[in-house]
Amino acid sequence: ASNCTSVDVKQASCNPGQYYQVSTHLCQDCLKGWYSAQAGQTTCTQCAAGTFSDAVGMSSCTKCVRCDKSL
């Protein structure tokens, strides 16, 4: 017998780059500047200093690269 409820199944179906919003029982994309590396998360993680995510639904952050000011 399974101990899973429908909420557990729905949460597990949230992809990397998404989080499970408990109040609405829906998967939501992580916002810009945030990420979720694994499926089934209930929160997104803010990108660390020196990294960024410039789109919603990211599963990782990208390291910042110093721009050449002469460009």
What does the secondary structure layout of this molecule look like, with pairings?
Layout: H1 6-12, E1 18-21, E2 26-29, E3 34-35, E4 45-46, E5 51-52, E6 62-63
Antiparallel strand pairs: 1-2, 3-4, 5-6
Task: Describe the protein's architecture and organization.
This protein has 71 residues and is mainly β. It contains one helix and six strands; from the N terminus they run αββββββ. Strands 1-2 form a two-stranded antiparallel sheet. Strand 1 and strand 2 form a beta hairpin. The longest helix is centred in the first third of the chain and has 7 residues, at 6-12. The radius of gyration is 16 Å and the shape is elongated. It starts with 5 loop residues before the first helix and ends in an 8-residue tail after the last strand.
Number of helices: 1
Q: C-alpha Rg, in Å?
A: 16 Å
Low-confidence stretches: none
What is the SS-derived class? Answer: mainly beta
The share of residues in helices is under 10%
What is the number of beta strands? 6
Give the overall form.
Answer: elongated
What is the chain-wise order of helices and strands?
A: HEEEEEE
Instruction: Note the main sheet.
Output: 2 strands, antiparallel
What distance lies between the first and last C-alpha atoms, to the nearest angstrom?
A: 63 Å
Strand content: 15-25%
Overall pLDDT: 86
Reading side by side through the largest sheet, how are the strands ordered? 1-2
